[in-house]
Amino acid sequence: MAIKANTNRYNVDLSSFLLVVPLCLMCLGLGACGLLAPAPAPHGEVQGASTSGAELAQSDVNRFATLAMRDNLDSLYRLLDKLYRRNPAEWKKTATSRELAIKRVRDAIETRQPWPELRGKHDIQALSLALSPDFSGDRAAAFIYAAADMIIVAHGGKTRFYLIDGFDAQYLYNAARNMEIASWILNSRKNPAGQPLLLSNDISDSERNVSFEREFGKIIGRIDLLAEMTTEKYKRAGISYLQNMVGGTFLQFLPVR
Q1: What is the pTM of this model?
Q2: Percentage of residues in the chain having pLDDT higher than 70
Q3: H/E/C letters for each residue in 61-95?
Q4: Closest Cα partner for 155 from 56, 57, 53, 67?
Q5: Are 191 and 197 in contact (CB under 8 A)?
Q6: What residue ranges do the domains of the chain occupy?
Q7: What φ, ψ does residue 50 adopt, rounded to 5°?
Q8: Most exposed: 36, 107, 236, 241, by fewest CB within 10 Å?
Q9: Residue 175's pLDDT band (boundaries 50, 70, 90)?
Q10: Residue 186 near residue 140, CB atoms below 8 Å
């Protein structure tokens, strides 16, 4: 009887073993597939701005607005490069190379120098002129310069912000809507010859390029977020004051000895 009992036990163990082996082989196979599968393509990582002593004179909102302005101008420069690539005849009106034309526009924006072809106009007046059908100058340069000028004006005429600076939430909101309108005009308005003012997005059977729309969307999103933060700033200050008052009265630790 003892031998019979031992034989049954060995039969059970063997059956279990036969069930486990295929599972182990399957796991090994899946692991090998994972090892052989190509690694995901790198998409970069968050890069924080370098720290400077000037940050001591900035609130959280000031710092966010400064970084958002930097990113918005970079987005406009990328849009200018894209427009020049799709419309090479434009940069030839400004410089001997695309790179030099971009540099001239960038220098004019960052040093707040007027763009000659806009005839002294600024803000939305400059944007309207750059997008008028009969404009004959470098439309790409005029459009990007006018868009940057309009955004900077909406931020109080500055590109860096400190504790003494404030924002008007409605002006910021209006600037975001102006960028939406400008993007729509760029894609829909025609010149006297019936052609687009500038070639930008391309949606056809052979190609789908909406990179311009994405870049406009980033700019609009950043400005809208700053507008909301501005409206929340004073409300949050009042709530924080009430929280501190309530906390000071009711949320104190009690002595235990």
Answers
A1: 0.75
A2: 68
A3: HHHHHHHHHHHHHHHHHHHHHHHHHHCHHHHCCCC
A4: 67
A5: yes
A6: 57-233
A7: -65, 145
A8: 36
A9: very high
A10: no
Is 202 strand, coil or helix?
A: strand
Which spans in the chain are helix H? 2-36, 60-86, 88-91, 98-110, 123-130, 139-154, 169-188, 211-250
pLDDT at 2 over 50: no
Which one is predicted more confidently, 115 or 34? 115
Element (H, E) at 205: none
Percent helix / strand / coil, the chain, rounded to 5: 65, 0, 30
What is the rounded CA–CA span in Å between residue 65 and residue 227? 10
How is residue 105 written in tokens? 């526009």
pLDDT over 60 (residue 71)? yes
**CB contact at 8 A, 122 and 149:** yes
CA distances from 187 to 42, 74, 153, 190, 200 (A): 32, 21, 24, 9, 7
Indicate whether 253 pLDDT > 80: no
**Quick one: which of 181, 206, 184, 196 has its CA closest to 139?**
196
- The C-alpha atoms of residue 197 and residue 188 are separated, in whole angstroms, by 8
Query: What are 196's strand-pairing partners?
Result: 190
Distance CA 66, CA 162 (A): 9
Residues contacting residue 223 through CB under 8 Å, at least 6 positions apart = 68, 72, 151, 154, 172, 173, 175, 176, 179
Strand, coil or helix: what is 215? helix
Q: Tell me which DSSP letter residue 194 carries.
A: S
C-alpha R_g of the chain: 31
8 Å CB contact between 165 and 156: yes
Tokens of 123: 């803000």
Looking at per-residue pLDDT, the higher value among 1 and 173 belongs to: 173
**SS3 of residue 109 by DSSP:** helix
